[in-house]
């Protein structure tokens, strides 16, 4: 289950109007694209297209948004193809909106990415060479992370999942706490730990002239590089039927062979960390369940496909069923 839920906007109409005005456009000229919180819009003008993203303070934190923007600009300057923020009429990149007596809402405009999504059902798009380039792209990001010195650091365990109570069963919460404690014990240095994308699945980039154009860095944080790799594999595996275990294992083997071949052209990762992939795949499943349980609206949770997906995740987590029986010897 991915984080993209389209539907009615959750953003107040007055905020939408004011946000559009800050960028010199009319609210009638923007269309809802979606996003996890239905907070991403597109403006299509005669001479320019761009994306408007609204961040409500009940869900997002200003420090995280500023960290996202700083990271994007660093990658852009290093030659990575990313969609960069566009200044508002005031010249500011981050605009602050607030209605009387209500929470703050921040709005940022981003370039509209050139290119198109990968079609996972088309072998002309979804193939080993593409996986290789995907790995090469992530390896480049991790290599750049080693020399990155941001103004502030957003650590992996600083979000609300780690600092606030979670609305899950006691059994799930106990498993969550055990994973967190296990992760806290892991070594961290510049060769294994740094700023990561944290969500580089196939709906967060376009392909343009055979290049990857990356967007949606909203989940970026300091974390282990191997976890960023596990996130990619986790979501790539969701393109294979969940009940076809053999097909999933075969896909994972082929995917990782190509992906890591590309990755290690840009960044070296020790075998010690690759052996942690099964652990981080299971952690990603648990993290996703915790995240959806906390941040999905009740309306979203009642949709049949969402309810069924959460039920399946809960059962697998409670029964300690691995997300994938991944063996290290399949990774060369």
TrEMBL record:
Gene3D superfamilies xrefs: 3.90.1200.10, Phosphorylase Kinase, domain 1
Record-annotated Aminoglycoside phosphotransferase domain positions: 33-259
SUPFAM superfamilies: Protein kinase-like (PK-like)
Superkingdom of origin: Bacteria
A Pfam short name: APH
Family: Belongs to the pseudomonas-type ThrB family.
Protein name as annotated: Phosphotransferase enzyme family protein
Lineage: Bacteria, Bacillati, Bacillota, Bacilli, Bacillales
